[in-house]
Amino acid sequence: MKEIKTFSACKWDDMTSATLEQLERVAIIKKRVKGFDAFLVKCAPYYGFTWFAFENGEGITESRCIYIESSIHYNLNSYGGSNYRMIRAMLEKVEKTLFTDEELNAPIKDYDEYRRKDYFVRNYLPRRWKYESAFHIIRSEQEEQEREERIRRHFPYYSQVAFAYFPLSGCVDYLKKRAEIVEKRYQEFMSNAEQRESAILYELFNYECFYSWDLDGVIDHFRGTGITAAEIQKVFNRHKWNQGEFAQ
Asked: Which CA distances in Å does 210 have to 50, 191, 200, 207?
């Protein structure tokens, strides 16, 4: 049997900073997934089999890892002790998480798909460039001054989509355009009464409202979207006595 090379990763930062060249040398499998370069790598000593997805698209001068799926989050026993079945399930998760522009522009089939598309645009797609997050823990006045200077000199463009600062205005425009496409498709989806209720019901379960009977989390979630507290209460009342059936 061919010896499997490993990639040394003691910390999660070692994973996220891995380069395309490093992973190409140790990859067990190389695969194109929805226009992204995907590599299956065995990471030692902690993370095990891991899929890395790299962006090589338009406007990219440096290929960057935008998504990682590690076997550390999987129970091998759930796959009959088969690494092959587990790795296949991991790849399916990668395929479900990443989207092409054509897929982003396609009609939304269900609320879960909207959530995945929205998360992809806001959290994974921005990783195609270096950026400075708007969220930051201030440890000292000097560190904060250095950060402000770094943003001013290298990351002057702010994205409301990603809540981050980018080096070029084109990065901000790229994300805004795709967020607007997803939002447009979402509004079309929510214009259907049955689909609108399915979205509310999804979040009622997500916030465990049928156990706590506390709707505040869902009300805050939909605040500013046109879905009112009264509408959420109405959906809750309609399903609160048969939630077991819906939970299945």
From this structure: 36, 25, 13, 9
The tokens of 137 are what?
């823990």
Give the DSSP H or E segment for 26. helix 20-26
Q: Tell me the C-alpha to C-alpha distance, in Å, between residue 127 and each of 47, 56, 165.
A: 21, 12, 12
Q: What are 145's two structure tokens? A: 């001054």
Q: What is the arithmetic mean of pLDDT over 30-40?
A: 93
Model's pTM, two decimal places?
0.87
Q: Tokens at residue 225, please? A: 């979207």
Q: What is the pLDDT of residues 84-113, one digit of tens each?
A: 999 999 999 999 999 999 999 999 999 999
Q: Is 38 exposed, middle or buried (0-12, 13-18, 19+ CB in 10 A)?
A: buried
Q: In what order do the strands lie in the sheet with 157-159?
A: 132-133, 164-166, 157-159
Is pLDDT of 62 > 70? Answer: no
Q: Could you give phi then psi for residue 5, rounded to 5 degrees?
A: -75, 155
Contact 36, 55 (CB under 8 A): yes
Left if phi > 0, otherwise alpha if psi is -120 to 50, otherwise beta: which for 80? left
The confidence score (pLDDT) of residue 58 equals 54
> If 0-12 CB within 10 Å is exposed, 13-18 middle and 19+ buried, where does residue 90 land?
buried
Parse the chain into domains and list their residue ranges. 6-98, 99-189, 192-248
